[in-house]
Each structure stands twice: as C-alpha cells, then as structure tokens.
Design goal:
Length: 173
C-alpha cells in the first residue's frame, strides 16, 4: 500500500514535467497494478472443481447473461438474484436448465399452466435437469448440481411468457 502511494506521489511530481514523462509514469502505475492482480485471480481459481455462477433477472424481463460456460465434471454453484422490485406473481423469475433434446417451446407453454407447481410442468419435468425456486424482486436462490455431459444446453425462466426473452445457452466444455 505504501509502495503504491509512493509511486502515485512520484507520478504526480513527474506529471508536472513534460508529456513524455507523464506517459511513462502512467505505465509504471499500470505495471504496479498488474503485479498485484495475479494473486487475486489465483485465489479465485484455486478450487477448479466448483464453478460459481451468478445470474440476475430484472423487472425488464431480462437475464444479465445469455451464455454460461462450465467444465465437464465441475460442480456448479449457481445463484439467481431477482434484482427487480416487482412481485413474484407479476414478474417472477426462475432459472431452469433444460435437457439437451428438450423442446423449449413445449416446456414454456406447459409451464404457463403449471401455476400450482411454481410453473414447473409436472408432465415435462424429465426435460428439466435442474431449476431454482421462483423468485420475486429482491430475492435470491442458490442451487448446486453436477455439470451434465459436455454439450450445449438451454436455460430459461419458466414464468408465463418469459422464456421468449429470458433464455440463454449453458455450455459444458
Ligand atoms: Cu422470468
């Protein structure tokens, strides 16, 4: 920390000089920042057996991710956060991972009539690998599951009418 402040002070002093010197001092600061970054990154990837994923849904009926990548064999710890304010019965969101050969439209339509089971259709449950709870604004839910076999899967929100906008790819590498 002291080192950083020193460099910063030095940079400020140098920047009183000509432009060339100023540019050079910027580069030095950049190097300093880069040096401290690898340590933080290393901490994040130490446990490669778990893929931590956070995805949000909002009041505009949008997920913040259209693609999620994990590796085969990983345990996936996925958190869905509803960052909106609207209630669950108006703008509910869940995150449902569909089987590889699932018929998204059929699931979406069946789900719309499955209010009693939080819009997870019992008749097509075998086409849904895993799903979070249905959430209202401000709520979140975390699920853990094993990444399925390599391939490209589809995830959707099964709230009535949402899957058209709220869908994305879940890629297992
Ligand atoms: Cu939704």
């Amino acid at each position: 920390m002291n080192k950083l402040i020193l460099i910063f002070t030095a940079a400020l002093a140098i920047s009183c000089g000509d432009n060339k010197k100023e540019k050079k001092s910027d580069m030095q600061i950049g190097t300093q920042v880069e040096e401290s970054t690898p340590a933080a990154t290393k901490d994040e990837v130490i446990d490669d057996s778990v893929a931590n994923v956070t995805i949000t849904g909002n009041d505009q009926m949008k997920f913040n991710k259209v693609e999620i990548r994990v590796k085969a064999g990983q345990k996936v710890k996925l958190t869905l956060q509803h960052v909106g304010k609207m209630e669950k019965n108006i703008m509910g969101h869940n995150w449902a991972l569909l089987a590889k050969d699932a018929d998204m439209a059929a699931i979406g339509q069946a789900a719309a009539e499955a209010a009693d089971t939080d819009y997870i259709p019992a008749s097509l449950k075998d086409q849904i690998i895993v799903h979070t709870k249905m959430l209202g604004g401000g709520e979140s839910d975390t699920i853990e599951f094993e990444a399925p076999e390599p391939g490209t899967y589809t995830f959707i929100c099964t709230f009535p009418g949402h899957y058209a906008l709220m869908q994305g790819k879940f890629i297992v590498e």
